[in-house]
Amino acid sequence: MVGLGYGKAKGVPMAIEKASKEARGQMFRVSMVGDTVAHRAVGTHKAAKVLLMPATPGTGVKAGGTVRAIMQVLGVHNVLSKVFGPTNPVNVARATMQALAGMRSKAEVERLRSSPVMLFHPQVTIEKRVAQVEEPQAGPAEEPVAEEPSSAE
């Protein structure tokens, strides 16, 4: 879960308290696959535009300071991002939150469409490939044949 708050006051502690209270009130769940975002998403706020894309394991968080901070708080370890337009931190943060709010899980999309959906995701395909390599191919299992004792007549 993640939320964004903005607070102003004469003192820093009061501003942090106001922002924290606002952020807790605006928290929402974000759909993730593994340790990355569920799918490609674009968020806009005023002139700022943020593109978030899922990444394969080991990529890391390829993002600017504002987007990186939000991704780290969210627990995303692999993501690619690009900011288009002005890089005002407040507008970039709000655009990032809008992109995250638009994330849908596979189950949610299936429910909305009333039909099955195939998921093409960098982390899902890697996991399937690794599972296929680690597990031997399913073939006929050879069972040891027990020899019958020969009788000497």
Strand content: 15-25%
Shape: globular
Rg from Cα: 25 Å
How many helices does DSSP assign?
5
Kindly state the mean pLDDT as a whole number? 87
- Report the order of strands and helices: HEEEEEHEHHH
CATH architecture of the largest domain: 2-Layer Sandwich
**CATH first level of the largest domain: which class?**
Alpha Beta
Spans with pLDDT under 50 lasting ≥5 residues? Answer: none
Strand order of the largest sheet: 3-4-6-5
Summarize, please.
By secondary structure, the protein is of the alpha+beta class.
Can you put this structure into words, describing what you see?
The protein is α+β, with helices and mostly antiparallel strands and 153 residues long. It is built from five helices and six strands; from the N terminus they run H-E-E-E-E-E-H-E-H-H-H. The chain has a four-stranded mixed β-sheet.
Key words describing this protein structure:
153 residues; alpha+beta; Ribosomal Protein S5, domain 2; 2 domains; four-stranded mixed β-sheet; 5 helices; 6 strands
Which SSEs are present, and which pair or pack?
Layout: H1 12-25, E1 32-33, E2 36-37, E3 41-45, E4 48-54, E5 61-62, H2 65-74, E6 79-84, H3 89-101, H4 106-113, H5 122-134
Parallel strand pairs: 5-6
Antiparallel strand pairs: 1-2, 3-4, 4-6
